Every structure is written in C-alpha cells, then in structure tokens.
Amino acid sequence: MLNRATTSQKSFDVLNMLFMVILMVITIYPLVYVAFASLSDASRLMAHQGVLWRPLGFSLDAYTNLFRNPMILKGYGNTLFVVVVGLFFNLLLTSLGAYALSRKSLQYRKPLMLFIIFTMFFSGGLIPLYLTIKGVGLVNSLWALILPQAVNTFNLILMKTAFEAIPDALEESAKIDGANDFVVLFRIVLPLSMPVIAVMLLYYGVSHWNSWFNAMIFLQERSLYPLQLVLREILLQGEANANTGASDGDAAMLAVTLKYATIIVATVPILFVYPFLQKYFVKGALIGAIKG
C-alpha cells in the first residue's frame, strides 16, 4: 500500500513538472520570438512562416536604425527622470499617508478611508484633469507626469495594510524612548516593510516606465517626450524609415524588424530590474490576502 502510494506520488510529481515545463515554454516563447525577430534579416523574416527558434540571418539593422533617431536617448533620459523622481515622491507620500491611516488613534479614520476609496471608482474625467494641470502651470512639463500620479489609492491601501501588521509594541517602546512619528516611520516601520516597499517600487516604476497617454496629453515639446511616446511616434509616423532614406520596399521590410526592436528596447530594462525585487514581491503582494 505504501509502495503504491509512493508510485502514485512520483507519477503525480513527474506530470506536474512536465506541465510546469510546458507552461514555462508557452510563457517564455513569445519573448524569445520577439528577441530573435528583432535580430533577424528583414527580408528573411518576412518570408518565414511558423516557429522561430533562432535569428534568421543575424542583423542589427533594426537597432541601428532605431538608435539613429536622436529622440531615443532623449526619451530614455526623460523617462529615467520621471521614474527616479516619481518613485521618490510615490514612496514618500504613499508611506506618509499609509502610516497616518494605519494609526488607530487617528481621528475620523473611517470617513477618511471611505473618501479615499471613493476616488478609486469615481473621478472628474480627463477634461477637468487637464484644466487642473493647466491651472497650476504644469502643462508642457515633466512634472505633469509625476505629481498627479504621486499617490495611487490601491497602493496606499496595500501599504496601510502592511503597516497595520507591525506590532504596536514596537511603536510604543520607541515613543517611550522619545521617538516621534517620523522616527517611528523611517527607522522602524519602513525597514520592517521591505516586501511592500519592493511591491511599491515595481508597481509605481512599471507605471511610470510604460506611461505614454498623459505625456501625449500634457506635453507639447518633443524634447520632453518620454521613451514610450518616442517609440509610439516612430512606429506610427515612420520616422525611423525616413531617417534611413530607404525605398518603400526596403522601408516596409525594415518596419517588420523595427517593430520587434522597439518592444525589446521598451521591455528589457524592466525585465532586468524584476529579478532583484522578485524575492520580496510575492510576499508583499499577498499582504492582507489572509486575515487571521
């Protein structure tokens, strides 16, 4: 009976591992396909059908023509500014708000939470937002991509839940020693909340990195365009093909590999960051999922 159970368990483990391997291949292959396609010769890629397991005639023409556009590096610089400065304000303001809302002694705590949650479901719309941004003088400024998105309601609630899980005794002992709320927050609460901090970095960072709609609405000068808007402009207006001076046929073939190259350029930085945050991410994202 024991041997039969052991054999069944081994069979289940083998099937489970096989299923996971197949699932992993299905998940990874689209990324591999895009990478190989971006490194392929445009004419051979257009003629190819079916699965792509390697670059077809290794070529860097797509990346060469992509980075020949001077706006690419400018877009990278603008995006890095928005990501770095935006993350600073995101973490600072979200942690301050979450800490205040997590304190049981806060007056009108429940009405404040209801008011904040209300903003998740109802908003003024795009036109009032634009008029507000214009009224405070942020139109055509990178700050228009940072300050209006300084605090996300869902992230605020997630961080508040994480702070509430920290024992009250730590705060009480610190205040007995003379610590104020800022000392408690920055020296006790935040160091003990690294998983949720990692989640905030990933959520806010990816949001800033992928943002293009607000930039399209609020920015007028092309020199202020973030990377995603520059890449969108290249794909839609064919600026990369115009810079090459290629014929229509060559431009059409180049556009095939250029499409994949833009995906790689926009995705790789985030893929490199994620492994460093992954060990915290699962734990932080599940905060508040189980109530004991």
Automatic annotation (TrEMBL):
Residues 76-269 form the ABC transmembrane type-1 domain. The chain crosses the membrane at residues 12-36, 80-100, 112-131, 184-206, 258-277. One of its GO terms (cellular component) is plasma membrane. It holds the Pfam family BPD_transp_1. InterPro entries: MetI-like, MetI-like_sf. One of its GO terms (biological process) is transmembrane transport. PANTHER family: ABC TRANSPORTER PERMEASE PROTEIN MG189-RELATED-RELATED (PTHR43744), POLYGALACTURONAN_RHAMNOGALACTURONAN TRANSPORT SYSTEM PERMEASE PROTEIN YTCP (PTHR43744:SF9). This is Sugar ABC transporter permease.
